[in-house]
Amino acid sequence: MTQDVILESPGDGIAEIRLNRPERMNALGVETVLALRQAIDEAARRRARVILLCGTGRAFCAGADLKQRKGMDLPARLAHNAGINDAINALAAAKCVTVAVLNGVALGGGLEMALACDLRIAAAGVSLGLTESRIGAFPGAGGTQRLSRLVGTSRALQMMLTGEPVSSEYAHSIGLVNELASSEELSSRALGLARLLASRSGNAQAVIKQLVYQGIELPLAEGLRMERAALPDILGSADYAEGLAAFEERRPPRFEGQA
Questions:
Q1: Are 102 and 60 in contact (CB under 8 A)?
Q2: Buried b (16+ CB within 10 A) or exposed e, 207-240
Q3: Domain with CATH 3.90.226.10 in the chain
Q4: Is 10 exposed, middle or buried (0-12, 13-18, 19+ CB in 10 A)?
Q5: Do 57 and 105 touch, CB atoms closer than 8 A?
Q6: Which residues are designated catalytic?
Q7: 5-198 fold
Q8: pLDDT tens, position by position, for the chain (259 residues)?
Q9: Is the CATH code 1.10.12 the one for domain 202-249?
Q10: Could you tell me if 211 and 226 are in contact, meaning their C-beta atoms sit under 8 angstroms apart?
């Protein structure tokens, strides 16, 4: 893993993946994308219960490294995009909870990474956007699909067709961002959220994610059947037995996998 991406453990069950190219606004170069994918895989091997994804410096991520992209031929450009997609899809497929910590601008592929996370917390006053139409392209790492599912077709189309970034305040008002914090408080707020999430049952959280993400693609009746089908494993699980015992004994539960 290069220093383009840093993997740290700021707390029990928490993995922090930090994009570390501040001089390039954490743009996704070829090596950066490979390192990002390796960090996601390593966090899974460490059985992280929460992944925090953030950036070093004044940006979260400015998207694909367009200076690199300009010098590529078409096969190389497609391979670069495929690598970005691979890393983003691995983030979306993570069984643990993923949180994008938007410390600065998140543009193009940077916002697409954030969209692949389960939750997003942003600093006040930062810009977010899918800006690819400005350079004659479109969001090709999941943006055309994930943004509309999150904020609705009309708002997503306006953002993508104009290519104009929006403020984190506006993003919060339309549900693109879950929480806002001042830049000074962002890291502590994100870590506090991560600790709360890590205290919950990872088994239950994985099932919740599966039910929500798969169910949204199904008719309601089918989604409800899928929900009911998941109940026996949960109600018979060790985590549920621990949760019931902790409730009766008036103590915090200690779920499997917690340190």
A1: yes
A2: bbbebeeebeeeeeeebeeeeeeeeeeeeebebb
A3: 5-198
A4: middle
A5: no
A6: 112, 132
A7: 2-enoyl-CoA Hydratase; Chain A, domain 1 (3.90.226)
A8: 469 999 999 999 999 999 999 999 999 999 999 999 999 999 999 999 999 999 999 999 999 999 999 999 999 999 999 999 999 999 999 999 999 999 999 999 999 999 999 999 999 999 999 999 999 999 999 999 999 999 999 999 999 999 999 999 999 999 999 999 999 999 999 999 999 999 999 999 999 999 999 999 999 999 999 999 999 999 999 999 999 999 999 999 999 866 4
A9: yes
A10: yes
N- to C-terminal Cα distance for the chain?
Answer: 26
CB atoms within 10 A of CB 5: 25
Domain with CATH 1.10.12 in the chain: 202-249
Rounded CA-CA distance 75/176 in Å is 33
Query: Could you tell me if 63 and 138 are in contact, meaning their C-beta atoms sit under 8 angstroms apart?
Result: no
Q: Would you state the structure tokens that stand for residue 224, as one six-digit string?
A: 């409800």
Q: Could you tell me which residues are beta bridge partners of residue 167? A: 127
Strand-pairing partners, residue 5, are 19
Looking at residue 257, its pLDDT comes to 65
Alpha-carbon distance of 54 to 120, in angstroms, equals 10
